[in-house]
Protein 1
Amino acid sequence: MSELAARRRAIWDSLPATWRGPAARLVASWLALIVLFMPDWADMADQWWNASTYNHILFVPLISAWLVSLRWPQLRQLEPHAWWPGLVLVGGAALVWLLGAFSGFNLFRHFGAVALLPASAVALLGPRVTLGLLFPLAYLMFLVPFGDELVPALQMITAEISIGLVHASGVPAIIDGVFIETPVGVFEVAEACSGVKFLVAMVAFATFVANLFFRSWWRRAGFMAFAVVVPIVANGIRAWGTIYIAQSQGVEFAAGFDHIVYGWVFFALVLVLVLALSWKFFDREADDPMIDAEAIAARDLGPLSRGQARPLRLLLATGAIVLAVQLWAGAANAMEASVPERIDLPAVEGWEQIDYAPALAWEPKAAGAQHRLLGRYRDGQGRTLDVFVALYAAQREGAEPGAFGQGALDPASDWAFNGAGAPIADAKSEMLLGAGRQGRAAATFYRVGDRLTGSRAALKLAAMRDRLLLDPRPVTMLVLSPETRAPDEAAAIIADFREATGPLGTWLDRLTAGG
């Protein structure tokens, strides 16, 4: 017998007899769920390994396993059993995955795929064992890569902290969105400098620490709030330090220094600071058990104590739920709405189409669209407006107009987000800055059915509705973009263009109908 086989045999022999069957079924069901949702797990694994924001997730399975080992001396006193009500959680996780598959919202897909693991554990192990394993099972949800949605807000927060400190340190500076101009140059709080990678890693770490070293829920909540605020403030201080050093040592020296500091060294220093300021408030003794098995066994669970199931039937029911959502998703995603073979930008009264000649190359990103148009209009006052239209036959993987990185700002281009634009009805309004010098406003509209909206959330909900009802509708993305750094001027140009087109939704319907 090989050493590995002997080790496995020793682990199996160490399990109480009442745990062997449930443990084997749990391992088998988890392996099956990972295989059945392999595209989602592969996508997540790619992000864990290749995206620095999510490298910390590689430690989550190890941390969860260690948390189980800390509870094992108590857990082995509890008797697991299959439990029918656990299928409610299995169905809920499968539904979240299905809605993510319908909308092209990867966060939902990933959340659902991961949530099926703890949900199936609840169903296969029963309510009392679940109480003992509640935190390790919940901690598995940190396997879901999240945080990209926070980048724009964190960029703005970091820029505001930085400019405040720059002024306080006596350096003259002007802020324009995420760009800070000083006597030695212009500094951009780019996406990579937003601090999101340290924030999401700190949240995962702080959650682990809060459970391990605190017993009081008030102290846990206070520690979590502190652990969120400190990295955000520290990142603003780091950005200010780079700008301040550049004033005397030059931009290149400051950039090199920042690249050395801005990495896991910076995160380690912030982590040490948080722990150093918090350790005296820890209220769990080192030898305190993580759970009280006797209290869990004696607890009156009321109706939850009923519902014991036969394991094989429960496994078959779980398989049926998973198979149903996957078949439904496959059928819905195979459907497409009909779209014309050709579309053209129409004439607009009071505006003439002219050659598209931007001061700096700009083109929105619309991966998976069946048609794309980009043109320029000019009115009688000489004002120009760039118009981009993308038409989708369906929203699905690889064709998601509301996905991160799609729309007016192509992350791979020379353009950067520079703050919110002036409010524009039915649109997402934002200001962009290209190569640190060229300004541009962008108002993004989505047309689904008879609804015109600038909300990506509304777009996702529309996709869910279409898939649930197996009723695909085309989606149109429209971006109206004047070259200007003045939000109010941009809003005025866009308002005049909309007045000339008439109701924008109706105008888009005619455009995308090929007429």
Note: The first helix runs from residue 3 to 14.
Protein 2
Amino acid sequence: MRQSNLYIPTLREVPADAEAKSHQLLVRAGFIRQSVSGVYSFLPLGRKVLKKVESIIREEMDEIGSQEVLMPALQPSELWEESGRWQTYGPELMRLNDRHDRTFALGATHEELITSLVRDEVKSYKRLPMVMYQIQAKFRDEKRPRFGLLRGREFIMKDAYTFDMDYEGLDENYDKIFNAYKKIFERCNLNFRAVIADSGAMGGKDTHEFMVLADIGEDTIAYSNESDFAANIEMAPVNIRYNKKEEASRDLKKVETVDQKTIQDVSDYLNVSTSDCIKAILWMVDEKPVLVLARGDHEINDIKVKNVLDAEVVELASEEQTKHYLGCETGYLGPIGISSDVQIIADHAVASIVNGVCGANERDTHYQYVNPERDFEVDLYEDLRFIQEGDPSPDGKGTITFAKGIEVGHVFKLGTKYSESLGANILDQNGKSTPIIMGSYGIGVSRTMAAVVEQMHDDNGIVWPTSLSPFDAHVICVNPKNDAQSELGERLYKKLKEKRFDVLYDDRKERAGVKFTDADLIGVPVQIIIGKRADEGIVEVKDRRTSEKQEMAISEIEAYIEQYYSNER
């Protein structure tokens, strides 16, 4: 493709609203343009890279026997009402009405629609197992779209669904897709981790996220410094045996703590360690009050609370609800003497506290010398806190370290969540009607493209891996007005095209500095510069990744490009 004919609107200045490096570079290099907040057009270069990501995904999904389909983005609300997610999915689901006032959703995901298709067509276990996938635009009304393609309201996604007659089949398909995802992200040259995750609104129990390590990431990964253990911080289990201090219990005492609301305030005021304080927070769990306790130096993990209580919705109690159930404002809450209407659950660490401190459910008042089980009873002790850096790894190998990550893929074992609610049943070997066992699997295609840029760039622009580069080579004619350079450029461009290389030929009548700046910004791995030795048939070849340059004869170029790409595979 001649660069003079290709739409590549490069920019010299960083866009004012672009925080993420991938956002800045993809806009500056002419790959994308914003339409409205969180919605982008993919320009010719951006579309070429997207197709490369899609091609890798298709190859790996087809390799494990998946079938590609294409479902509508416009989905009838009735399906979402059948699954129950019309009410629970939240404001991110884009809803609209047609001229007949029929309600629809723009597809945020396709569990309901794919389940309805299989429900209506597949009646016997003999048709299973089955794996189907699609690559399509998805829509989510993000409250705060940001970071360009990393968090948008319209984005390209690959979603896949498995259908099995039993859980053994689900496990097998899950492992196949899990391994296919690893190959996909390895082929995209990404530094990533597969981490234990929460299923959220998707439902199901077993789930992993594929996280690309990047400072801009909005998720925190907890991983071992000595093993392969990795988990989203929300899901990382804490496996610690807490020992009580060898100290005699003292009599409970109520003390004034005027304007001392936070754990740090109270610990400083009473000259005690934060680990000797009991943090008490009231949550509404499926509209029922639950007081959750943790040690003062720990943070309560609401995802763990939700999973332990097998709840649908866990929300912090409002000020009115807190006063109604505990008779006090936050900052002075505690478990002593509260109504039996309020369930008390606690993190394991609370049980080890001796002569601790907690709120007295009275303004400006706390209890000192508090001992669990003597002064209050706990309905349930569980792992309810966030893991911390320096904690022992849950697998017993090494300690925990944190890193930021960008989620690019997610795999779920759904079980019968959707097949039961939508009535997708089959007849098993015994002629008995049973729900289909399902799995759901997604890759953010456009997000993967941005994640690659987050990891692969330098001060001058993008450095594409060979598997995703928009072109195989970037031929740059320094001075098209020079007959020798122009003639050699045209000859080399034609020769490489005949050999089936995808070449970008910069034939523009621009200054050399502009051409070199644009070439580095765009990031094609191999740059072939036709300059002052053109009349000798000699060109300069630059490796965009290392910035190393070497001169070579035009006759050597074809072999060089082939060798360069074979080394990268």
Note: The radius of gyration is 29 Å.
Protein 3
Amino acid sequence: MRTEDEVLIVGGGIMGLAIALELKLRGTSVTVLSRDFRQAAAHAAAGMLAPQAEALPPGPMRDLSLQSLEAYPEWVRKIEDLSSTDIGYQACGILAPVYDAPSDTPNNSSTPARRWLDQTAIHLAQPGLNPDILGGWWLPEEGQVDNRALTGALRSAAESVGVTIHEGVAVTDVERRHGKVVGMRSPTGTWQAQHYILATGAWSQALLPVPVQPLKGQMISVAAPMVDAAERPLQQVLFGPDGLYLVPRRDGRIIVGATVEAVGFAPHNTPAGLQELLSKAMRLFPAIAQFPIQECWWGFRPTTPDQFPILGASPYNNLSLAIGHHRNGILLAPITAHLIANLVTTHETDPLLPHFSWERFLSPMVPSPATASPAPSSYSSPKSMSQPSTLPSATPTQTDLTVARSSDRPLIIAGQTFHSRLMTGTGKYDNFEVMQQSVAASGCEIVTVAVRRVQTKAPGHEGLAEALDWSRIWMLPNTAGCQTAEEAIRVARLGREMAKLLGQEDNNFVKLEVIPDTQYLLPDPIGTLEAAETLVKEGFAVLPYINADPLLAKRLEDVGCATVMPLGSPIGSGQGIRNTANIQIIIENAKVPVVVDAGIGTPSEAAQAMEMGADALLINTAIAKAHNPVAMAQAMGMATVAGRLAYLAGRIPVQGNASASSPLTGRIGKA
């Protein structure tokens, strides 16, 4: 699918829509691709406009937030006029009560925009607070907006001025060439434009290697008694000292939020999450215990390590970023739209934008959540394989590989994110020490383990389960040695249990091998397909080892396999890539990652496979049986990165004639 529009925005949430509206009002043609409008983080928010209640420290983030707050009234009027919708904007002020008296003298730091109320004053301002509340801050210039009404009105406003919105379009890949984005690939085709904007929220890392992770938030609404506005039990937005907030709407609802959970994209409300919200809410405002629960929901905040957004330029000169707004997306929508529209239409870079550049995460001085603005006490760093493994004895070369990988999107298999595109094995090494050192030197994050050999304690595999740190390395159990589909299915089930016993509770991966041929070790295509169909239905992420057969690869993808793994040449042969044409066809047609497995003997062959466009490699024998396995492992890791970078860079065309490197004009003539 092609579009001739000037700007293509990926992401139909509040950021994408706000930017689209601003650009269209400036005369720019805009198309928005929305994966699922209902999943946008803005739907799950409370709509607070609270930069000072959030206690943002002095600096660029507070400046950005205050500018956006100042722009809100005019921005709201524009959206309401275009959409004919009341979006519930209220400059009602926010109360931030505290249970413990501040150590300093609060009245000395009071300003017109931030005034301290002592115990008597705060209970007069909002009756019904917990008697233990000793005071709090009154922030009269802050307020709220009905986030759901805002998001719907923003979409209507954008459509009313001519923004084209395509719903249900999931972008799966960013096509890049020569330092530019040349298209956004989706199941419906490739979308093209002159300029691209990424506004994909918590899902951004699936398209670019940016450190944006989901932080889940659960929320509840309760129904307060329907009385006149002046008699409503809760008159003000309350922002509690423990991160809880209560937001009263005009229709009588009170929004209670929100948990902060590092659980990836785990859906649904949980008893623990709802209990946490209700207990904090009843402590802060006891009367809420008697109000009926109206609705429960959840959403995913897009969060960076320093909890500040990523705005502006990207690694590609025609791609702009508007992602990572954490819990301030509603507040920051007006200023984000303004700054990005300026950047796209006039190439104007606001002095604030460099502070929110993606490049700040390339520096070793990036603050962690522990040293950045304080997160709520319930925040915990996600223990996830989506971060690069910290392997022992890192060398400068490995650090260089990490930096090189940062220019590429990560490898995603069955929802798990990996930054290394090299997988290795554990067999054929002389001893465990050499294997451990080789795995570390390769920089790999996925290691395959033969389940049958571990289960039976085959020679060389005793104690293998304890030989590697599985909290840092993702285990890929394989069904090596299975000659039938039935055997492979049984062994795959054992492999899943083995991974769970080693602490990888969510590991459903299996490398599927069905190999009845004992001489050439060629996989059985029929048995592989039969086993894959069964294992996919049982919830496995199946990575099937196959001949380089494009039709079989397509069938396996259609039944739900997480990857396809065509062999370059027979296992352990070191013959290199003997099936180039067929592997190229598989790569061109696959919508799942293609992993070249078996036969690679040298780093140049590893680079060749990656230059063809393979997503990853699995290499074992070439490392384990080298004269120096550790050095070869490091070389294979470097070759994998080099081949991938070469593929992304794009090689020069092959020509029949020579072409001089130096220009033929302007030469010094003969005397």
Note: The mean pLDDT is 85.
